[in-house]
Amino acid sequence: MSSRGNWGSRVGFILAAAGSAVGLGNIWRFPYITGKNGGALFVLIYIGCVIVLGLPVMLAEFALGRATAKNPVGAFQAIRPGTKWHYTGFLGVLTGVMILSFYSVIAGWTLGYCYKSLSGQLAALGKGQAAALFRSFIASPWQLILLLGIFMVLTVHIVAKGVSAGLEKYSKILMPALFLIMLLLMVRSLTLPGAEKGLLFYLKPDFAKINGRVFLEAMGQAFFSLSLGLGTMLTYGSYLGKKENLVSSAAWVAVLDTSVAILAGFIIFPALFSQNMAPDQGPGLVFAILPVIFAHMPGGMGFAALFFLLLAVAALTSTISILEVPVAFLIDEKKWPRRRAAWLMGALAFAFGIPSALSGGGMKFFSRLPVVHVDFLSLWDKVWGNVALSVGSLLIAIFVAHVWKTANALAEITAGGVSFRLARLWVMAIKYVCPLLILVVLVSQFF
Ligand code: PFF
Q: Taking the complete model, does pTM exceed 0.85, yes or no?
Protein backbone atom coordinates (compact mmCIF):
# COMPACT_ATOMS: atom_id res chain seq x y z
CA MET A 1 0.00 0.00 0.00
CA SER A 2 2.89 2.35 0.65
CA SER A 3 3.44 2.88 -3.09
CA ARG A 4 -0.07 4.33 -3.34
CA GLY A 5 0.63 6.72 -0.48
CA ASN A 6 -0.80 6.87 3.00
CA TRP A 7 -2.13 9.33 5.56
CA GLY A 8 0.40 10.80 7.97
CA SER A 9 -1.86 10.49 11.00
CA ARG A 10 -5.41 9.97 12.19
CA VAL A 11 -6.00 13.70 12.47
CA GLY A 12 -4.57 14.04 8.98
CA PHE A 13 -7.23 11.71 7.66
CA ILE A 14 -10.14 13.44 9.39
CA LEU A 15 -8.85 16.81 8.19
CA ALA A 16 -8.55 15.59 4.63
CA ALA A 17 -12.00 13.99 4.65
CA ALA A 18 -13.50 17.10 6.26
CA GLY A 19 -11.57 19.21 3.76
CA SER A 20 -13.22 17.23 0.99
CA ALA A 21 -16.66 17.64 2.52
CA VAL A 22 -16.46 21.33 3.43
CA GLY A 23 -16.36 23.49 0.35
CA LEU A 24 -18.57 25.34 -2.10
CA GLY A 25 -21.27 22.77 -1.34
CA ASN A 26 -21.70 24.31 2.10
CA ILE A 27 -21.29 27.99 1.36
CA TRP A 28 -22.46 28.38 -2.24
CA ARG A 29 -24.77 25.41 -2.90
CA PHE A 30 -26.53 24.88 0.43
CA PRO A 31 -27.89 28.45 0.71
CA TYR A 32 -29.05 28.59 -2.90
CA ILE A 33 -30.75 25.19 -2.76
CA THR A 34 -32.33 26.07 0.60
CA GLY A 35 -33.56 29.37 -0.82
CA LYS A 36 -35.04 27.66 -3.84
CA ASN A 37 -36.82 25.07 -1.72
CA GLY A 38 -38.57 27.29 0.76
CA GLY A 39 -36.22 27.51 3.74
CA ALA A 40 -36.72 25.96 7.17
CA LEU A 41 -38.55 22.78 6.25
CA PHE A 42 -35.92 22.00 3.66
CA VAL A 43 -33.21 22.45 6.29
CA LEU A 44 -34.93 19.92 8.55
CA ILE A 45 -35.28 17.38 5.76
CA TYR A 46 -31.67 18.01 4.82
CA ILE A 47 -30.42 17.26 8.35
CA GLY A 48 -32.58 14.12 8.33
CA CYS A 49 -30.91 13.03 5.07
CA VAL A 50 -27.44 13.60 6.52
CA ILE A 51 -28.21 11.36 9.50
CA VAL A 52 -30.31 8.65 7.85
CA LEU A 53 -28.59 8.42 4.45
CA GLY A 54 -25.29 10.31 4.56
CA LEU A 55 -23.70 8.83 7.67
CA PRO A 56 -24.44 5.18 6.79
CA VAL A 57 -23.21 5.58 3.22
CA MET A 58 -20.07 7.38 4.37
CA LEU A 59 -19.24 4.53 6.72
CA ALA A 60 -19.87 2.05 3.91
CA GLU A 61 -17.49 3.94 1.60
CA PHE A 62 -14.78 4.16 4.28
CA ALA A 63 -15.06 0.43 5.03
CA LEU A 64 -15.05 -0.64 1.39
CA GLY A 65 -12.07 1.57 0.63
CA ARG A 66 -9.99 0.46 3.58
CA ALA A 67 -10.82 -3.23 3.18
CA THR A 68 -9.70 -3.27 -0.45
CA ALA A 69 -7.07 -0.49 -0.44
CA LYS A 70 -8.24 0.26 -3.97
CA ASN A 71 -9.76 2.94 -6.16
CA PRO A 72 -13.55 2.70 -6.72
CA VAL A 73 -13.30 0.51 -9.84
CA GLY A 74 -10.72 -1.81 -8.27
CA ALA A 75 -12.60 -2.03 -4.97
CA PHE A 76 -15.72 -3.53 -6.57
CA GLN A 77 -13.57 -5.84 -8.66
CA ALA A 78 -11.59 -7.01 -5.64
CA ILE A 79 -14.73 -8.10 -3.82
CA ARG A 80 -16.79 -9.42 -6.75
CA PRO A 81 -14.39 -10.17 -9.60
CA GLY A 82 -15.94 -11.00 -12.94
CA THR A 83 -19.23 -9.21 -12.22
CA LYS A 84 -20.55 -5.92 -13.57
CA TRP A 85 -20.34 -4.21 -10.18
CA HIS A 86 -17.20 -2.32 -11.11
CA TYR A 87 -19.32 -0.20 -13.45
CA THR A 88 -20.39 1.55 -10.27
CA GLY A 89 -16.76 2.59 -9.99
CA PHE A 90 -16.74 3.80 -13.59
CA LEU A 91 -19.85 5.84 -12.91
CA GLY A 92 -17.93 7.40 -10.01
CA VAL A 93 -14.96 8.24 -12.22
CA LEU A 94 -17.24 9.87 -14.80
CA THR A 95 -19.27 11.71 -12.16
CA GLY A 96 -16.02 12.96 -10.63
CA VAL A 97 -14.80 14.51 -13.87
CA MET A 98 -18.20 16.12 -14.52
CA ILE A 99 -18.58 17.57 -11.02
CA LEU A 100 -15.00 18.81 -11.14
CA SER A 101 -15.84 20.63 -14.37
CA PHE A 102 -18.61 22.89 -13.11
CA TYR A 103 -17.38 23.04 -9.50
CA SER A 104 -14.15 24.62 -10.73
CA VAL A 105 -16.14 27.27 -12.58
CA ILE A 106 -17.73 28.35 -9.30
CA ALA A 107 -14.32 28.16 -7.62
CA GLY A 108 -13.17 30.52 -10.39
CA TRP A 109 -15.96 32.91 -9.38
CA THR A 110 -14.54 33.03 -5.85
CA LEU A 111 -11.07 33.79 -7.20
CA GLY A 112 -12.61 36.53 -9.34
CA TYR A 113 -14.41 37.99 -6.35
CA CYS A 114 -11.22 37.91 -4.31
CA TYR A 115 -9.61 40.01 -7.03
CA LYS A 116 -12.62 42.33 -7.19
CA SER A 117 -12.41 42.96 -3.43
CA LEU A 118 -8.73 43.80 -3.63
CA SER A 119 -9.16 46.09 -6.62
CA GLY A 120 -11.98 48.01 -4.97
CA GLN A 121 -14.74 46.96 -7.35
CA LEU A 122 -16.81 45.55 -4.49
CA ALA A 123 -16.52 48.66 -2.35
CA ALA A 124 -19.78 50.12 -1.08
CA LEU A 125 -22.10 48.23 -3.38
CA GLY A 126 -25.82 48.48 -2.80
CA LYS A 127 -28.02 45.49 -3.51
CA GLY A 128 -28.91 46.44 -7.07
CA GLN A 129 -25.31 47.15 -7.94
CA ALA A 130 -24.02 43.91 -6.41
CA ALA A 131 -26.50 41.89 -8.44
CA ALA A 132 -25.67 43.82 -11.61
CA LEU A 133 -21.94 43.36 -11.05
CA PHE A 134 -22.45 39.64 -10.67
CA ARG A 135 -24.56 39.43 -13.83
CA SER A 136 -21.95 41.17 -15.93
CA PHE A 137 -19.18 39.09 -14.32
CA ILE A 138 -20.74 35.75 -15.22
CA ALA A 139 -21.43 36.97 -18.75
CA SER A 140 -17.74 37.60 -19.47
CA PRO A 141 -16.52 34.42 -21.16
CA TRP A 142 -12.74 34.89 -21.34
CA GLN A 143 -12.38 35.99 -17.78
CA LEU A 144 -14.33 32.97 -16.54
CA ILE A 145 -12.44 30.50 -18.70
CA LEU A 146 -9.16 31.98 -17.47
CA LEU A 147 -10.24 31.67 -13.83
CA LEU A 148 -11.45 28.12 -14.45
CA GLY A 149 -8.06 27.32 -15.95
CA ILE A 150 -6.13 28.86 -13.06
CA PHE A 151 -8.14 26.89 -10.55
CA MET A 152 -7.81 23.63 -12.47
CA VAL A 153 -4.03 24.04 -12.71
CA LEU A 154 -3.87 24.54 -8.93
CA THR A 155 -5.91 21.38 -8.35
CA VAL A 156 -3.92 19.27 -10.77
CA HIS A 157 -0.62 20.51 -9.40
CA ILE A 158 -1.49 19.40 -5.87
CA VAL A 159 -2.90 16.02 -6.91
CA ALA A 160 0.13 15.36 -9.13
CA LYS A 161 2.34 15.68 -6.06
CA GLY A 162 0.60 12.91 -4.10
CA VAL A 163 -1.78 12.26 -1.22
CA SER A 164 -0.14 13.21 2.03
CA ALA A 165 2.02 16.02 0.71
CA GLY A 166 0.48 19.41 0.60
CA LEU A 167 -2.63 21.11 1.54
CA GLU A 168 -3.83 19.43 4.73
CA LYS A 169 -0.98 21.05 6.62
CA TYR A 170 -2.19 24.51 5.73
CA SER A 171 -5.87 23.81 6.05
CA LYS A 172 -5.35 23.19 9.78
CA ILE A 173 -4.99 26.97 10.07
CA LEU A 174 -6.95 28.19 7.07
CA MET A 175 -10.23 26.38 7.71
CA PRO A 176 -10.63 27.62 11.29
CA ALA A 177 -9.85 31.08 9.90
CA LEU A 178 -12.68 30.73 7.38
CA PHE A 179 -15.00 29.62 10.17
CA LEU A 180 -14.08 32.70 12.25
CA ILE A 181 -14.80 35.10 9.39
CA MET A 182 -18.10 33.33 8.87
CA LEU A 183 -19.00 33.88 12.53
CA LEU A 184 -18.25 37.58 12.08
CA LEU A 185 -20.35 37.71 8.94
CA MET A 186 -23.21 36.03 10.75
CA VAL A 187 -23.16 38.64 13.52
CA ARG A 188 -23.21 41.44 10.93
CA SER A 189 -25.97 39.84 8.94
CA LEU A 190 -28.14 39.16 11.99
CA THR A 191 -27.88 42.77 13.15
CA LEU A 192 -28.98 44.34 9.85
CA PRO A 193 -32.40 46.00 10.00
CA GLY A 194 -35.13 43.55 8.98
CA ALA A 195 -32.95 40.47 9.52
CA GLU A 196 -35.73 38.75 11.51
CA LYS A 197 -37.67 38.00 8.34
CA GLY A 198 -34.70 36.00 7.10
CA LEU A 199 -34.48 34.10 10.38
CA LEU A 200 -38.15 33.21 10.11
CA PHE A 201 -37.64 31.92 6.59
CA TYR A 202 -34.65 29.87 7.72
CA LEU A 203 -36.02 28.52 11.01
CA LYS A 204 -39.82 28.39 10.87
CA PRO A 205 -41.05 25.46 8.78
CA ASP A 206 -43.88 26.13 6.36
CA PHE A 207 -45.54 22.81 5.62
CA ALA A 208 -47.32 24.20 2.57
CA LYS A 209 -43.98 24.22 0.78
CA ILE A 210 -43.40 20.50 0.72
CA ASN A 211 -43.31 18.48 -2.50
CA GLY A 212 -41.40 15.60 -4.04
CA ARG A 213 -38.72 17.83 -5.48
CA VAL A 214 -37.78 19.03 -2.00
CA PHE A 215 -36.83 15.49 -0.99
CA LEU A 216 -34.68 14.93 -4.07
CA GLU A 217 -32.92 18.25 -3.58
CA ALA A 218 -32.28 17.57 0.13
CA MET A 219 -31.00 14.07 -0.52
CA GLY A 220 -28.76 15.16 -3.38
CA GLN A 221 -27.45 18.07 -1.34
CA ALA A 222 -26.57 15.71 1.53
CA PHE A 223 -24.56 13.43 -0.76
CA PHE A 224 -22.94 16.37 -2.51
CA SER A 225 -21.97 18.12 0.70
CA LEU A 226 -20.60 14.97 2.34
CA SER A 227 -18.68 14.01 -0.84
CA LEU A 228 -20.57 10.72 -1.23
CA GLY A 229 -21.67 8.62 -4.15
CA LEU A 230 -18.70 8.82 -6.47
CA GLY A 231 -16.09 7.06 -4.38
CA THR A 232 -14.22 10.03 -2.87
CA MET A 233 -14.56 8.76 0.67
CA LEU A 234 -13.90 5.23 -0.58
CA THR A 235 -10.63 6.40 -2.15
CA TYR A 236 -9.64 8.40 0.96
CA GLY A 237 -10.45 5.31 3.08
CA SER A 238 -8.17 3.24 0.88
CA TYR A 239 -5.16 5.22 2.10
CA LEU A 240 -6.08 4.50 5.72
CA GLY A 241 -4.44 2.21 8.28
CA LYS A 242 -6.35 -0.49 10.17
CA LYS A 243 -6.06 1.24 13.53
CA GLU A 244 -8.20 4.20 12.62
CA ASN A 245 -11.72 4.53 13.94
CA LEU A 246 -14.01 4.79 10.92
CA VAL A 247 -17.13 5.42 12.99
CA SER A 248 -15.88 8.45 14.86
CA SER A 249 -14.16 9.78 11.73
CA ALA A 250 -17.47 9.66 9.83
CA ALA A 251 -19.28 11.34 12.71
CA TRP A 252 -16.70 14.13 12.89
CA VAL A 253 -16.84 14.79 9.18
CA ALA A 254 -20.64 14.95 9.17
CA VAL A 255 -20.82 17.26 12.19
CA LEU A 256 -18.17 19.66 10.87
CA ASP A 257 -19.68 19.72 7.41
CA THR A 258 -23.23 20.29 8.57
CA SER A 259 -22.19 23.03 11.01
CA VAL A 260 -20.52 25.02 8.25
CA ALA A 261 -23.58 24.70 5.99
CA ILE A 262 -26.00 25.78 8.73
CA LEU A 263 -23.73 28.70 9.58
CA ALA A 264 -23.73 29.77 5.93
CA GLY A 265 -27.53 29.97 6.05
CA PHE A 266 -27.34 32.24 9.09
CA ILE A 267 -25.17 34.59 7.05
CA ILE A 268 -27.13 34.61 3.80
CA PHE A 269 -30.82 34.69 4.74
CA PRO A 270 -30.96 37.49 7.34
CA ALA A 271 -29.02 39.78 5.00
CA LEU A 272 -31.07 38.72 2.00
CA PHE A 273 -34.40 39.51 3.65
CA SER A 274 -33.10 42.71 5.16
CA GLN A 275 -32.44 43.87 1.58
CA ASN A 276 -35.80 42.55 0.33
CA MET A 277 -34.05 40.26 -2.13
CA ALA A 278 -35.57 37.00 -3.40
CA PRO A 279 -34.26 33.76 -1.84
CA ASP A 280 -34.96 31.64 -4.92
CA GLN A 281 -32.64 33.29 -7.43
CA GLY A 282 -30.49 30.20 -7.99
CA PRO A 283 -26.71 29.69 -8.24
CA GLY A 284 -25.87 33.39 -8.12
CA LEU A 285 -27.56 33.93 -4.75
CA VAL A 286 -24.50 34.04 -2.51
CA PHE A 287 -22.50 36.22 -4.88
CA ALA A 288 -25.31 38.74 -5.11
CA ILE A 289 -25.72 39.21 -1.35
CA LEU A 290 -22.27 38.76 0.21
CA PRO A 291 -20.84 42.02 -1.22
CA VAL A 292 -23.78 43.85 0.35
CA ILE A 293 -22.93 42.41 3.77
CA PHE A 294 -19.26 43.32 3.37
CA ALA A 295 -20.25 46.83 2.34
CA HIS A 296 -21.96 47.20 5.73
CA MET A 297 -18.82 46.22 7.67
CA PRO A 298 -15.90 48.38 8.77
CA GLY A 299 -12.87 47.12 6.84
CA GLY A 300 -15.30 45.21 4.68
CA MET A 301 -13.11 44.97 1.60
CA GLY A 302 -10.25 43.39 3.55
CA PHE A 303 -12.63 40.84 5.02
CA ALA A 304 -14.13 40.22 1.60
CA ALA A 305 -10.77 39.50 0.01
CA LEU A 306 -9.79 37.17 2.84
CA PHE A 307 -13.15 35.43 2.82
CA PHE A 308 -13.13 34.73 -0.92
CA LEU A 309 -9.53 33.57 -0.74
CA LEU A 310 -10.27 31.14 2.09
CA LEU A 311 -13.38 29.96 0.28
CA ALA A 312 -11.20 29.20 -2.74
CA VAL A 313 -8.89 27.19 -0.47
CA ALA A 314 -11.90 25.28 0.90
CA ALA A 315 -12.93 24.59 -2.69
CA LEU A 316 -9.41 23.40 -3.45
CA THR A 317 -9.43 20.81 -0.65
CA SER A 318 -12.65 19.52 -2.24
CA THR A 319 -11.50 19.53 -5.87
CA ILE A 320 -8.33 17.62 -5.04
CA SER A 321 -10.49 14.91 -3.44
CA ILE A 322 -12.68 14.72 -6.54
CA LEU A 323 -9.73 14.55 -8.94
CA GLU A 324 -8.13 11.88 -6.74
CA VAL A 325 -10.86 9.40 -7.79
CA PRO A 326 -10.12 9.20 -11.56
CA VAL A 327 -6.40 9.58 -10.83
CA ALA A 328 -6.32 6.65 -8.37
CA PHE A 329 -8.20 4.63 -10.98
CA LEU A 330 -5.59 5.29 -13.66
CA ILE A 331 -2.69 4.65 -11.26
CA ASP A 332 -4.07 1.36 -9.90
CA GLU A 333 -5.73 -0.14 -12.93
CA LYS A 334 -3.79 1.31 -15.85
CA LYS A 335 -0.44 1.70 -14.08
CA TRP A 336 -0.17 5.33 -15.15
CA PRO A 337 2.25 7.65 -13.39
CA ARG A 338 0.41 9.99 -11.01
CA ARG A 339 1.52 13.13 -12.82
CA ARG A 340 0.23 12.05 -16.21
CA ALA A 341 -3.06 10.83 -14.74
CA ALA A 342 -3.63 14.11 -12.91
CA TRP A 343 -2.90 16.32 -15.93
CA LEU A 344 -5.02 14.29 -18.33
CA MET A 345 -8.07 14.16 -16.06
CA GLY A 346 -7.65 17.83 -15.20
CA ALA A 347 -7.56 18.71 -18.90
CA LEU A 348 -10.73 16.71 -19.48
CA ALA A 349 -12.52 18.44 -16.61
CA PHE A 350 -11.34 21.81 -17.94
CA ALA A 351 -12.77 21.07 -21.38
CA PHE A 352 -16.13 20.04 -19.91
CA GLY A 353 -16.03 23.12 -17.70
CA ILE A 354 -16.05 25.52 -20.65
CA PRO A 355 -19.81 25.21 -21.38
CA SER A 356 -20.49 25.88 -17.70
CA ALA A 357 -18.25 28.93 -17.82
CA LEU A 358 -20.23 30.20 -20.83
CA SER A 359 -23.63 29.53 -19.33
CA GLY A 360 -24.14 32.80 -17.48
CA GLY A 361 -24.62 34.81 -20.67
CA GLY A 362 -21.19 34.27 -22.27
CA MET A 363 -22.80 32.21 -25.00
CA LYS A 364 -26.52 32.22 -25.71
CA PHE A 365 -26.79 28.51 -26.43
CA PHE A 366 -25.34 27.39 -23.08
CA SER A 367 -27.14 30.11 -21.15
CA ARG A 368 -30.50 28.68 -22.07
CA LEU A 369 -30.41 25.20 -23.51
CA PRO A 370 -33.12 24.06 -25.90
CA VAL A 371 -35.69 21.52 -24.59
CA VAL A 372 -34.75 21.79 -20.90
CA HIS A 373 -34.76 25.61 -20.84
CA VAL A 374 -32.11 26.01 -18.17
CA ASP A 375 -28.48 27.01 -18.38
CA PHE A 376 -25.77 24.39 -18.78
CA LEU A 377 -24.26 24.85 -15.32
CA SER A 378 -27.61 24.36 -13.57
CA LEU A 379 -28.28 21.29 -15.68
CA TRP A 380 -24.86 19.77 -14.92
CA ASP A 381 -25.25 20.57 -11.23
CA LYS A 382 -28.59 18.76 -11.21
CA VAL A 383 -27.59 15.75 -13.33
CA TRP A 384 -24.18 15.02 -11.79
CA GLY A 385 -24.24 16.86 -8.50
CA ASN A 386 -27.61 15.45 -7.56
CA VAL A 387 -28.94 12.52 -9.57
CA ALA A 388 -25.64 10.77 -10.34
CA LEU A 389 -24.47 11.02 -6.72
CA SER A 390 -27.80 9.62 -5.53
CA VAL A 391 -27.58 6.71 -7.97
CA GLY A 392 -23.96 6.10 -6.95
CA SER A 393 -24.86 6.11 -3.26
CA LEU A 394 -27.74 3.73 -3.94
CA LEU A 395 -25.43 1.28 -5.71
CA ILE A 396 -22.77 1.54 -3.00
CA ALA A 397 -25.36 0.84 -0.29
CA ILE A 398 -26.76 -2.17 -2.14
CA PHE A 399 -23.30 -3.53 -2.86
CA VAL A 400 -21.98 -3.19 0.68
CA ALA A 401 -25.13 -4.52 2.34
CA HIS A 402 -26.25 -7.25 -0.04
CA VAL A 403 -23.24 -8.30 -2.08
CA TRP A 404 -20.24 -7.77 0.18
CA LYS A 405 -22.60 -8.36 3.19
CA THR A 406 -22.88 -6.34 6.37
CA ALA A 407 -21.02 -8.96 8.44
CA ASN A 408 -17.88 -8.40 6.37
CA ALA A 409 -18.30 -4.66 6.42
CA LEU A 410 -18.79 -4.72 10.20
CA ALA A 411 -15.66 -6.83 10.62
CA GLU A 412 -13.77 -4.13 8.72
CA ILE A 413 -15.34 -1.28 10.71
CA THR A 414 -14.57 -2.89 14.07
CA ALA A 415 -11.10 -4.14 13.10
CA GLY A 416 -8.52 -3.45 15.78
CA GLY A 417 -11.14 -3.55 18.55
CA VAL A 418 -13.04 -0.37 17.61
CA SER A 419 -16.38 -0.35 19.42
CA PHE A 420 -19.47 0.39 17.35
CA ARG A 421 -22.50 0.63 19.60
CA LEU A 422 -24.87 1.64 16.84
CA ALA A 423 -23.88 -1.29 14.64
CA ARG A 424 -27.42 -2.68 14.47
CA LEU A 425 -28.83 0.66 13.47
CA TRP A 426 -26.22 1.00 10.77
CA VAL A 427 -27.06 -2.46 9.42
CA MET A 428 -30.76 -1.55 9.26
CA ALA A 429 -29.95 1.72 7.54
CA ILE A 430 -27.57 0.40 4.90
CA LYS A 431 -29.59 -2.75 4.19
CA TYR A 432 -33.10 -1.36 3.98
CA VAL A 433 -33.52 2.34 4.71
CA CYS A 434 -30.89 3.74 2.33
CA PRO A 435 -31.70 1.61 -0.73
CA LEU A 436 -35.47 1.99 -0.37
CA LEU A 437 -35.52 5.66 0.43
CA ILE A 438 -33.08 6.65 -2.31
CA LEU A 439 -34.97 4.56 -4.83
CA VAL A 440 -38.36 5.96 -3.86
CA VAL A 441 -37.13 9.54 -4.02
CA LEU A 442 -35.42 8.99 -7.38
CA VAL A 443 -38.32 7.16 -8.98
CA SER A 444 -40.86 9.68 -7.67
CA GLN A 445 -39.19 12.28 -9.87
CA PHE A 446 -40.68 10.68 -12.94
CA PHE A 447 -44.25 11.18 -11.79
N1 PFF B 1 -18.36 18.04 -0.72
C2 PFF B 1 -17.86 19.07 -1.56
C3 PFF B 1 -18.51 20.37 -1.15
O4 PFF B 1 -19.47 20.35 -0.38
O5 PFF B 1 -18.10 21.41 -1.62
C6 PFF B 1 -18.07 18.77 -3.01
C7 PFF B 1 -17.77 17.36 -3.41
C8 PFF B 1 -16.54 16.80 -3.14
C9 PFF B 1 -18.76 16.58 -3.99
C10 PFF B 1 -16.28 15.48 -3.46
C11 PFF B 1 -18.53 15.27 -4.32
C12 PFF B 1 -17.29 14.72 -4.04
F13 PFF B 1 -17.06 13.47 -4.32
A: yes
